[in-house]
Amino acid sequence: MIRSFKRIVRWAFLCSSLAGGSVLLGAPQALADCKPAHSFETLTPGVLSVAAWVFPPYSIPGPGNQLSGVDGEIIKRIAARECLDIKLTVVDPAAVVQSVIARRADVGIGDWYRTAERSKVLGLTAPLYLDVMGIISSEGYSKISELKGQRIGTVQGYLWVDDLKKAFGDNLVLYPNPVAMAQDLAAKRIALGIDSFAVGVASQQKGAYRGMSIKVSEPDPRVKATLEPGQTSFPHTKANTALSVALNENIQALHASGEIAEILGSFGLDKQAANVGAPRLVE
User: Solute-binding protein family 3/N-terminal domain: which residues (predicted)?
Assistant: First the structure.
């Protein structure tokens, strides 16, 4: 998801009620007879410190010390494999990465792209899933070629924005967040919208985009992100190489068992997004 910090404002308002809260999630497996799959240090022994922001369907902190969302479910399974409790700190989106860099958290969650710039200061895990581009329309469009001549909205900060600007010029309207785009789409000020497929699905589940279809965009050479969707990861402490190995091997095991695909499906997302391909970085 987040390629640069200029996009983080889109959901920042959702975090205000939870920001700064820190809770401990007990893992049933974290008992005396639990045998961790790997050996590595964390900031607090026996605890995996996780920085999260509110970004459905990927990161969903909730009341009663709950953590859900695609990333939330994956990190809980990893913690269970390693016999660790989770200490969850909910912050604004910009603070997730800073929390890891400043060693206030071992790991960050919330649909973070694997980027070359980010890899300079953070460890980035093996890819979790693909963040694919979705087309939101009443007609059920799935091809870029079907959008010619129409007024299109999209949200700032995604991998596909620059290519869409080149393809559609003044017909492309940029929005700071999906809420503003959804309002204009409902008012017919734009003909269709383009957003992360997963974010669009999550918004529709909450009542947005009524009567509209959300389709994964078919590959089109004019928009590179439809050919190579962004791979997401867990940013983590770069210097902690043993933690990096443990995270990567657990992620690979969860892919092999089909659990990541299963988690995606449980949130109404395409299980094929778990087919991440070879690791790559967004330049």
Answer: 47-271
Q: Can you give the pTM of this predicted structure?
A: 0.81
Average pLDDT of the residues in 148-157: 94
C-alpha span between 51 and 19 (Å, rounded)? 10
Contact partners, residue 117, CB within 8 Å, separation at least 6: none
Q: What are the pLDDT digits (tens) for 45-55? A: 999 999 999 98
Give the amino acid at 76: K
CB 42 within 8 A of CB 85: no
Per-residue pLDDT, averaged over 12-38, amounts to 57
Distance between CA atoms of residues 198 and 70, nearest Å: 10
Assigned CATH class of 133-226:
alpha beta
- The domains spanning 47-129+232-274 and 133-226 adopt the same CATH topology: yes
Distance CA 199, CA 197 (A): 6
Architecture of the structural domain at 47-129+232-274: 3-Layer(aba) Sandwich (3.40)
On whether the CB atoms of residues 106 and 79 are closer than 8 A, the answer is no
In the sheet with 123-124, reading across from the earlier edge strand, the strands are 21-25, 85-90, 47-52, 107-108, 235-236, 123-124
Size of the chain in residues:
283
Confidence of residue 5 (pLDDT cuts 50, 70, 90): very low
Confidence of residue 168 (pLDDT cuts 50, 70, 90): very high
What are the boundaries of each domain within the chain? 47-129+232-274, 133-226
Identify the H or E element spanning 199: helix 197-205
